[in-house]
Specification:
The protein is mainly alpha-helical. The chain is built from 6 helices and 5 strands; from the N terminus they run H-H-H-H-E-E-E-E-E-H-H. InterPro entries: GAR_dom_sf (IPR036534).
Length: about 650
């Protein structure tokens, strides 16, 4: 602990002064007393802040001493906790070693079990694949058997059909024999009929001639009827055109009627408005009866008469339009009746034409039916022969396939029994493997639980280590903060002296800076005077004369200096100038640009370069001042 300081140095100083109550001492002078009081007040004012600072530091020292005691207790506790942690760590290491050994053994068992399980799963997978293949093979065989059974049923059906066809063929043979007998009889009848046919052919020739004459007459009649039908169609088209015209006229009449109705409604509205106006006028008639009796009443009567006349005319027009519409509707009905009669006549003509064509075709159809019947009989004979040959071949083929099918069924039955025995063995082995896998999973779960408990103990130990490390860090922070406070006391004592010295130095620097700023202002004034001076061209150089007009017109902040004919110094940039269409253009890069765009691109850049002037080491003035003097001398000498 720091030594206790006196509570007030002012009391110590006051004890050294002579006391006013001493009888033997001489009385002090009032001036000396006042001066002494002032000195005491000044001393008190100077000492009070130091007393406050010292008291605060004493409190801080006491606080840090208390904290140091607490830290010592905390360190002792941490030492005890470290000892307990060491014991726990040794126990944990032993437990971890035991659990690690057990875990390795369990892991080895798990690896063996997994390896055995993988091998068993592979065997099971292979067996399943074989079973699936056998099942697919059995399914394919069953499908093939079903197809063969279907084919067999189809063959039986075909055999039945062939039996029925053979029976029909036998019947047909009997019918053919009977037909031969009948044919012989028919042949005799045909011979008799041939004689009759010869007679009939003569009659047919005569009938054909007559029929040709009738056909020519019918054709003439049909052409005439076609001509009449075309004429009736044309008449119908005309009637339809007339109907369209009448419908259009009817629509126009309806529009006119609507317009007249609208005009009538408007006139009625106007009449109603005029009646309202008349009522108003009658209301005001008592006041204006003397002045407007002769003039206004005559005008109103005339207007009313005109409106009444227009209403009458409109009503007459509406009646006439209605009569016209009724007449048009009557004419349209007549035209529709005429069109219906024309259509009926055309239908009759078509029916007569069809009957004539059917009469011509009827004689030729009998011969065609006889030829078709003979061709059909020959076709049936050929089909019967082909069907007999096909049935013989099909029966032989199906007998062979049935024998093969019986052999394959026997082989499949034996193979199926062998596969079923193998599947039973595989299922028993799979059950044993499943029991072994369940036992290994139970052992694995026990090992996982023991590993989790060991992991929890390790986590608790790690938490204790973190707490110990945090307490050590806090102790280090407290020591460093105490050292910082001691250093801060020393810095505060030396800072006052440094501040006083820095204040004096700052005042000297400000005065020097003020002088520098004044010099810069003077130089900037010189520069502004130089920039604002008028550009004087060389009269013999036409490019310089045109450029001078543009420079004096724009007054750019950066001056132009003529170096040679067509070459100028713009700030610190050398440029080539030419005249194009009485305007100066400057070469920039690979082309030329105008005066205004040149200033927009380079004026601000060159102005910044000029304002960041360089000073001459010999004179301490900017370098452009000397250039300005040289330019002035050149202008003075011409």
């Amino acid at each position: 602990q720091a030594p206790s300081l006196p509570s007030s140095p002012y009391g110590r100083c006051r004890s050294t002064l002579p006391s006013a109550g001493n009888e033997g001492s001489p009385k002090p002078n009032p001036r000396e007393l006042a001066q002494q009081a002032r000195w005491e007040e000044m001393l008190k004012a100077r000492v009070e802040p130091y007393e406050k600072v010292i008291s605060t530091y004493e409190e801080k020292l006491r606080h840090f001493d208390d904290q140091q005691g607490k830290l010592i207790e905390v360190l002792n506790n941490f030492d005890e906790s470290e000892e307990r942690c060491r014991e726990l760590r040794t126990k944990l290491e032993t437990v971890n070693a035991q659990h690690a050994a057990a875990l390795q053994a369990q892991q080895e068992l798990v690896r063996q079990a997994q390896h055995a399980r993988a091998s068993l799963e592979e065997q099971v997978h292979e067996l399943r694949q074989e079973v699936s293949l056998r099942r697919a093979h059995e399914d394919s065989l069953q499908k093939r058997v079903a197809l063969m059974e279907n084919e067999l049923s189809v063959v039986h059906h075909k055999v039945a059909n062939m039996d029925s066809m053979e029976q029909e063929v036998a019947n047909a043979r009997k019918e053919a024999d009977s037909s031969k007998e009948a044919h012989r009889r028919v042949q005799e009848e045909v011979d008799e009929r041939s004689r009759d046919v010869a007679k009939l052919t003569e009659e047919i020739c005569r009938l054909r001639q007559e029929h040709s004459r009738e056909v020519s007459r019918a054709r003439a009649l049909t052409t005439e009827e076609q001509r009449k039908s075309e004429q009736s169609r044309e008449d119908l088209c005309r009637v339809q055109d007339l109907l369209r015209d009448k419908t259009a006229e009817h629509a126009l009449l309806l529009e006119r009627m609507e317009q007249t109705a609208l005009s009538a409604s408007t006139t009625d509205g106007e009449a109603a408005s005029y009646r309202a106006m008349l009522d108003k006028e009658r209301a005001h008639r008592k006041e204006l009866e003397r002045r407007l009796q002769e003039q206004e009443l005559k005008r109103l009567d005339g207007a009313l008469e005109e409106h009444r006349q227009t209403i009458r005319e409109l009503r007459q027009e509406v009646a006439a339009a209605r009569t016209e519409v009724q007449e048009a509707q009557g004419r349209a009905a007549k035209m529709e009746e005429e069109a219906a009669t024309a259509q009926r006549e055309a239908a009759l003509v078509r029916q007569q034409e069809l009957e004539a064509r059917q009469a011509v075709v009827g004689h030729e159809s009998i011969k065609e039916e006889i030829a078709v019947a003979t061709a059909r009989i020959e076709e049936l004979r050929s089909r019967i022969k082909a069907a007999q040959e096909d049935t013989r071949k099909v029966t032989e083929q199906y007998e062979k396939e049935l024998e093969e099918h019986a052999q394959t069924q026997k082989a499949m039955a034996s193979e199926r029994e062998a596969r079923q025995r193998e599947a039973g063995d595989f299922k028993a082995e799979a059950r044993r493997n499943q029991q072994r896998i369940e036992e290994l999973q139970a052992e694995q779960e026990l090992a996982a639980r023991s590993l989790a408990s060991a992991q929890e103990a390790a986590d608790r130990c790690q938490d204790l280590q973190q707490q110990l490390q945090q307490a050590q860090d806090d102790c280090k922070k407290h020591h460093s903060s105490r050292n910082e406070i001691h250093g801060e006391l020393q810095r505060m004592s030396s800072k006052f002296q440094e501040d006083a010295f820095a204040q004096d130095k700052r005042s000297e620097e400000l005065s020097a800076l003020l002088d520098d700023r004044n010099n810069e202002i003077k130089l900037l004034m010189y520069r502004v005077q130089e920039l604002s001076s008028k550009y004087v061209p060389v009269k013999s150089d036409s490019t310089d004369v045109v450029l001078a007009k543009w420079v004096n017109g724009y007054r750019p902040a950066v001056p132009f200096f003529r170096l040679a004919a067509g070459m100028y110094l713009f700030g610190r940039r050398q440029v080539i100038c030419k005249i194009s269409n009485d305007k100066p253009v400057f070469r920039v890069g690979g082309g030329f640009i105008g005066f205004d765009s040149f200033l927009e691109r380079f004026a601000s850049e060159e102005l910044e370069r000029l304002l960041s002037y360089e000073t001459d080491e010999r004179t301490g003035e900017p370098k452009f001042v000397e250039a300005h003097r040289v330019r002035q001398m050149m202008e003075d000498t011409g």
